[in-house]
Structures are given as C-alpha cells and as structure tokens.
Amino acid sequence: MKSATFTMIRPDDWHLHLRDGATLQAVVGDSARQFGRAIIMPNLKPPVVSTDLAGAYRQRILAALALAKLPAGAFTPLMTLYLTDNTTAAEITRAAQSGFVYGVKLYPAGATTNSDAGVTDLLGRCAQALDAMQEHGLPLLVHGEVTDPAVDLFDREAVFIDRVMIPLRRAFPGLKVVFEHLTTSNGVDYVSDAQGPIGATITAHHLLYNRNAIFQGGIRPHWYCLPVLKREKHRLALIHAATGGNPRFFLGTDSAPHPRGLKEQACGCAGCYTALHAMELYATAFDSVGRLDALEGFASRNGPAFYGLPVNLGCITLEHTAYEIPQELPMGDSTVVPLAAGESLPWRLREAHA
User: Which tens digit of pLDDT belongs to each residue from 60-81?
Assistant: First the structure.
C-alpha cells in the first residue's frame, strides 16, 4: 500500500523566474512555500547585467517576501548576472566577491523571453569573462539552444552541444557549467559522460509531458515553453536521468509567469507557470515510475553539492491525496494560468517545517 505521506529535506529551485514589480509580489510566495533557496534568472527589462543591479533586484525580492508576511530567512534568493558580449572580467570578479551572486546566465541572443541582449559570439566576445568565472568558480548557467533559423526547433539543443558546449568546455575545462532545463536524450548523454564540473537542471513539465501536450484538443498556449517539449523518447530519458541517482542532475522549475493575455494571443509568450505546484508535479513524475525515494536526492541534495552549499535544515511533507490545480491565479492587474490548470494531481504539499 502506498504511504499516505512523504517527508523530505526542504528542496531548492536552481532555475526560477520571479520577474519584477507586481508580478514579483504575486508569485514569490508560491516558491517560498516550498523551496529554501532559488537561483533567480536575470532576464528582466532591462536585464540584470551588473553586480549592483543584482543587489538592487535582490533587495526588491526581499521586500516582496516581507510584504507577503513570509518568515525572515525562510527563502533565500541566489542572484545571477546576465552575460552579454560586453561583460568584463572585473565585473565577474565583483560578482564572485559579492556574497550574493551565484552564477552568470548565458542566453544566446534571441533564444527565449527577454534574450535580445544575449551573447552573439561566446568564445569570441566573452573569453575574458569566462576565464574570470573559471578562476573564481562562478558557474555559467547555459540556455542550451542555438538560434540559427536553419536549425529545426526540436534539434536546437542537440546542435548546441556540438557547436557551443564542446568547444566551450574544451577552451575552459575548469569552468563550472549548468546545462539549464535539459530536454533531450542528447543532453542527458552529454551531461552524464562529459568530463569536468558540469550539472543540469530538469523541469517538472519536461519530466511529465511530451510535445503532444501542446496540441491536445487544439493549441494550448499555457503548455508552450522554451526549450519546447520534445518527443516521448526524450521525456523518458529525462525521467531516467532525474530518478537514476546521478548527482549531476537536479531540480530547476524554470517557472515563468506571464499574464494570461500575453500567452493567449497570436504570438504567445513562452513559459509555464509551475511555482504554485512544483513539488506536486515533481512528486507525480517520480511516483509515476516508482522512484519517489529518489526525489530527495534530486530536489534537495544534488544542487547544493554542485554549488558548494549545505543542504537545507527544514523539511517538507507531501500527502498522497488529490490536488485540484486552480484555473487561474491573480497576478498584478491580470491573472496567470498555472500549468495543467483544472486538472488533478495525486500529491499535495501539506506543510513545510523546520
């Protein structure tokens, strides 16, 4: 008989979008209920390209947590810089010495939401910054897709490995790299076998769903994300990686809130909002293959080990009971639709405790 509850070390989210302003205020509590820490993405408008901007953004997040009446210290934002062609080695040094910047995010220009200021020539324009990151042990967090319009959308991660990752890690073998929101068996194989310090985050939606989910009953914009959902064989490879005990794979929701109207339009935004029910989604994915026992390692231990941080002291408890996902949630002067809105999951977060 399946246990009625499952208690585990409080997890962390190693890839999270909080946005800013009213959106930040609306969504930050969903992450803080479940996670002890989160790596905060820097693709604001304008992007977070300096240590000073990262520090100011961190203060806005802490203020939003206080306004939400969340306990002080219950959730720690781990900040990142947005890598550009003009990021200097001196700025990387400042970030590494700040005590609050934990990574630098690579967005190939045009790859996803708010990525227009991203990198156009990684090794040609960013070599000094990368060398400083390698020296200081500051991880490079990679959106692993090429933007070449000649490359099929579903092949962009595999091509990125050949064109970018292999040359990058040959040039900087000591650089810590996180292959963000992995989506393919190609990516799983690369991260599993590559030499040197490398890890990868995997989202709940890429563990649970394949690309058919976008088109069931018509186009469903709230299932559209980048990197896009892939074939079933890739989903199965991700499940095997996440549940298999390899410490290189860890939790990163890539929860990405967009107002409902910007998703439901002729050119809808990419991103799935999963912060509300992240651990319910991950528990459902792991339980679907009988590996709920592996969830704590993936969600609570592997990420801290990669980043050189201690595991969280608190715990969360999940209860095996039906959880109905709301149809929408308030977000500023609009609403946000959570992934799989209106559907039911077999696990529910019951509590987080010290």
Answer: 999 999 998 887 788 999 999 9
Give residues with Cβ within 8 angstroms of 54, minimum separation 6. Answer: 42, 48, 79, 80, 81, 95, 98, 100, 101
Q: Comparing C-alpha atoms, which of 75, 163, 92 is closest to residue 127?
A: 92
Crossing angle of helices 51-67 and 89-98, in 10° steps, is 30
Which amino acid is located at 180 in the chain? Answer: E
Instruction: List residues with catalytic annotation.
Output: 254
Tell me the longest C-alpha to C-alpha distance in the chain.
58
Q: In 255-282, which positions are buried (b, 16+ CB within 10 angstroms) versus exposed (e)?
A: bbbbbbeebeeeeebbbbbbbbbbbbbb
The answer as to whether 47 is a domain residue is yes
CATH number at residue 295: 3.20.20.140
Q: How far apart are CA 71 and CA 75, in angstroms?
A: 8
The residue range of the domain holding 197 is: 12-311
Model pTM above 0.70: yes
For the beta carbon of residue 118, count every other beta carbon within 10 angstroms: 23
Take residue 327 and report the two structure tokens written for it: 């149809």
Structural Rg of the chain based on CA atoms? 19
